[in-house]
């Protein structure tokens, strides 16, 4: 059985009981260095995730009878490894089903940030610039946007796109959410551009119309 477990934004307090139970029962724990470090007391086998997704899929296929838990940050099906794994295995099980795959949802970094800033998630457009370039022309037609980012397209680059379109927007930048150096700042896009491409920790960005 392959269980993809969402471990939330980082802090143990944000992990679900279902996630912890699955991890306790795992024979093998698969995850990035940061994720595996969250479970120092795990006594089974561990396998470190790297960029070789094809290699991981092959290994999962060969080892599916074992109790494998793949760790994912936030929620596995929100721009996470859950999509890749469910897509890969959908054709392999008898009847095209996904009987041998289980997903345990987690608190997404976006959900966590919205809760911290008391922002309802109704009508919010959720997306990602993590390893991809969004179509900003289309994206910035939305009133309320939340996105996970990466080091290539982060707060500064997003602010530049907003300013280049002459839009007046507020940006909420949530860094290292739920972790020791958590920081949440609220600035308008011009201010983010003025700060320059300064270093941001792991972050998500919420974009709102200025009022
Ligand atoms: C591959 S995406 C995974 C998103 C994840 N599945 C989720 O639901 O939050 C990785 C991105 O999520 C965001 N992220 C994950 N954990 C975070 C945290 N603790 N603080 C801020 N951003 C975080 C960052 O934008 C990071 O680059």
UniProtKB/TrEMBL annotation:
Q: Which InterPro entries match?
A: 4pyrrol_Mease, 4pyrrol_Methylase_sf, 4pyrrole_Mease_sub1, 4pyrrole_Mease_sub2, CbiE, Cobalamin_biosynth_MTase
Q: Does the keyword Methyltransferase apply?
A: yes
Q: Name one Pfam family in it.
A: TP_methylase
Q: Enumerate the spans annotated as Tetrapyrrole methylase domain.
A: 1-189
Determine the domain of life of the protein's source.
Bacteria
Q: GO molecular function, one example?
A: protein methyltransferase activity
UniProt KW keywords: Cobalamin biosynthesis, Methyltransferase, S-adenosyl-L-methionine, Transferase
Q: Which GO terms describe its biological process?
A: cobalamin biosynthetic process; methylation
Pathway given for this chain reads: Cofactor biosynthesis; adenosylcobalamin biosynthesis
List the NCBIfam families.
Answer: CbiE (TIGR02467), PRK05787.1-4 (NF004456)
The name this protein goes by in its record? Precorrin-6Y C-methyltransferase
């Amino acid at each position: 059985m392959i269980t993809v477990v969402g471990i939330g934004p980082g802090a143990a307090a944000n992990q679900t009981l279902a996630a912890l139970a699955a991890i306790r029962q795992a024979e093998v724990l698969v995850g990035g260095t940061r994720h595996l470090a969250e479970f120092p007391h795990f006594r089974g086998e561990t396998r470190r995730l790297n960029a070789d997704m094809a290699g991981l899929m092959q290994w999962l296929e060969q080892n599916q009878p074992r109790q494998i838990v793949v760790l994912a940050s936030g929620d596995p099906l929100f721009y996470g490894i859950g999509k890749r794994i469910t897509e890969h295995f959908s054709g392999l099980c008898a009847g095209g089903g996904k009987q041998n795959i289980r997903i345990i949802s987690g608190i997404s970094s976006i959900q966590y940030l919205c809760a911290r800033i008391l922002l309802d998630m109704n009508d919010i457009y959720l997306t990602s610039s993590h390893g991809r370039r969004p179509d900003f022309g289309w994206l910035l037609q939305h009133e309320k946007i939340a996105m996970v980012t990466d080091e290539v397209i982060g707060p500064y680059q997003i602010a530049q796109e907003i300013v280049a379109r002459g839009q007046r927007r507020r940006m909420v930048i949530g860094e290292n959410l739920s972790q020791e150096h958590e920081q949440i700042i609220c600035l308008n896009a011009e201010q983010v551009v003025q700060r320059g491409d300064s270093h941001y920790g792991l972050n998500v960005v919420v974009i709102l119309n200025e009022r």
